[in-house]
Amino acid sequence: xxxxxxxxxxxxxxxxxxxxxxxxxxxxxxxxxxxxxxxxxxxxxxxxxxxxxxxxxxxxxxxxxxxxxxxxxxxxxxxxxxxxxxxxxxxxxxxxxxxxxxxxxxxxxxxxxxxxxxxxxxxxxxxxxxxxxxxxxxxxxxxxxxxxxxxxxxxxxxxxxxxxxxxxxxxxxxxxxxxxxxxxxxxxxxxxxxxxxxxxxxxxxxxxxxxxxxxxxxxxxxxxxxxxxxxxxxxxxxxxxxxxxxxxxxxxxxxxxxxxxxxxxxxxxxxxxxxxxxxxxxxxxxxxxxxxxxxxxxxxxxxxxxxxxxxxxxxxxxxxxxxxxxxxxxxxxxxxxxxxxxxxxxxxxxxxxxxxxxxxxxxxxxxxxxxxxxxxxxxxxxxxxxxxxxxxxxxxxxxx
Amino acid sequence: xxxxxxxxxxxxxxxxxxxxxxxxxxxxxxxxxxxxxxxxxxxxxxxxxxxxxxxxxxxxxxxxxxxxxxxxxxxxxxxxxxxxxxxxxxxxxxxxxxxxxxxxxxxxxxxxxxxxxxxxxxxxxxxxxxxxxxxxxxxxxxxxxxxxxxxxxxxxxxxxxxxxxxxxxxxxxxxxxxxxxxxxxxxxxxxxxxxxxxxxxxxxxxxxxxxxxxxxxxxxxxxxxxxxxxxxxxxxxxxxxxxxxxxxxxxxxxxxxxxxxxxxxxxxxxxxxxxxxxxxxxxxxxxxxxxxxxxxxxxxxxxxxxxxxxxxxxxxxxxxxxxxxxxxxxxxxxxxxxxxxxxxxxxxxxxxxxxxxxxxxxxxxxxxxxxxxxxx
Lengths: 400, 376
Hints:
The complex is a heterodimer.
Chain A: H1 5-22, H2 41-57, H3 75-88, H4 96-109, H5 112-124, E1 129-132, E2 148-152, E3 155-166, E4 173-179, E5 191-197, E6 203-208, E7 217-228, E8 232-233, H6 239-250, H7 268-275, E9 279-280, E10 283-284, H8 289-311, H9 324-346, H10 366-379, H11 384-394
Parallel strand pairs in A: 1-4
Antiparallel strand pairs in A: 2-3, 3-7, 4-5, 5-8, 6-7, 9-10
Helix pairs in contact in A: 1-3, 4-5, 4-6, 8-9, 9-10, 9-11
Chain B: H1 13-29, H2 32-37, H3 47-55, H4 74-86, H5 93-105, H6 110-120, E1 125-127, E2 143-144, E3 150-151, E4 153-158, E5 165-172, E6 175-182, E7 191-193, E8 203-207, E9 218-219, H7 224-258, E10 262-263, E11 266-267, H8 272-298, H9 306-333, H10 335-338, H11 345-357, H12 362-373
Parallel strand pairs in B: 1-5
Antiparallel strand pairs in B: 2-3, 4-8, 5-6, 6-9, 7-8, 10-11
């Protein structure tokens, strides 16, 4: 499918105009900067309404098939819509585990019945999705997941505990990794993958208070929870393979993502703009050569990441290690983001010690909160240390 | 600041062809054994290989078509030089193409067009940028009098032993000019070769005092100062490309060793203390290549503007860090072997120490970036 430049430009103008007319006003409470920060009912209701509005206007799921609620057009349209959303600074689309991971998975390998049942609700935000992979004792070591799923007639009986369940207290469905067979030779072969309903008895989602003092995750307890047997995806024993495919979407493969903003992007420009009023040793902060050098290094990191996103599509310039840029993206981006926010707190002088809630905090304590929150990305979805192992083994070919 | 600056990165068909062809050429013509054979020769490179490079037209790549070059610009040179860095192939190519750039950009008339013709045919040339060891010091002190006699010493002149053409920034009546000195005008006694830490490279201190030149050998026009500053930043980009290539080769060396050497019953590559820094080498190399090809995408024959300058500063700052880190860890990770001259890690750590200084170290370039970004 080829689309004329004119057609794309017209679409951009249309999206831009719509967003301009429909961008919500500041709600009077702090809006989440990422989908992992939805901690209050107020925030949830607001974001749910916003996502529904975007979908209704036809700017979400543009590349998903029409029969499942999508737009059925070339992905380039979604890319344009996303760019405009970012440019105009509208709120995030919060149902990311559905839009970005579960949705593409179901779309790519789900049965017709699964596609019909789940995809549209993901787009409209009617069905909130969460993910049940990590367990209290098995975070990085996902292959060792212990949650039990035992077949009993038309049902599976689930027992065990999941942790770091984003929006676990709000979700209608969970993509769930559980052990159906304890006696397989390889631990991976005993795992199965479920599209599990959350509104059954025996499931308790207890909100976890985060380092920021807010909520957003739950610890999720399953006690003889019974889910329909047909909520298994694929066959018993295929769980690991399906989970790995899910992680590919999660770790940056854009393909299949329904679109929308997963998080508010903070750039070096934003930081530098806000530091213009800061002082050190009685002089403007940006007169200090050490500070300038720290900022320049981070500007370079930021730029290297965005240039890498371009280079990744140029075959001859990635021939040494073709998987390097895509597989290291999460590692590079989240570590850069963490260091940048850390420096932002460091550069504020005495005000750097203020937290959200203090009237004198720079930007209401935005950077303090952003720094703490940044660990959700360097730890979640595979810690940076595990990411480094993945890059070493799958890109460089180093031994396990 | 960032929002207004360019983010483009692409590869032309010509660049892709040069990338592939030069990689193959360097792999065949410059094996590590070949490199080691040249370490203690006077010239530091194999004339036959140089002549083949000349025959392939590498010296005319960045020379405009109206001066009988291929007109591919500096962006055509970047893939080539990256591959030379990968193969640790010396030769005066970088010095010579930079000298050509200076002649072109200063648009210097008949005499220099004749020199450009000689360069295309394979005559090595070099620019004598420095008078002391400070790349940040751009003040020229060497002079040329009204009788056209040169007074002063230039230092760290790259490829002195090979060069037949020397371009000297000089002061004439308080103005910056360029003098074109030919090798036969130089006495052997005026040349003091350096012992360089990178044994694949050559440079010398040269006392030009007393050399009298013709007025046709002087370039004096309004373009000299800007051209000279532009060619310095292009030099930084080309050395960055060479560093990226050397870093890639050094990373291969490390990965290979980590996959073969066993200690405590395991391949040492299975230990995270070695594994994770090796991933750092890779991500630093990725940043280097992105900056280099970004710069190569936006550079042109036109006078250099801010965006290109920023891209080149970033390329050199990053590639210097990439290679100095990669080579340093390569020595360490080879253990006892790494401490020997026989281990190839020494070639890369030596290249790192030499190249980090060329056209300014990482701190120099970051401080230039700070000046651009924060209006200093």
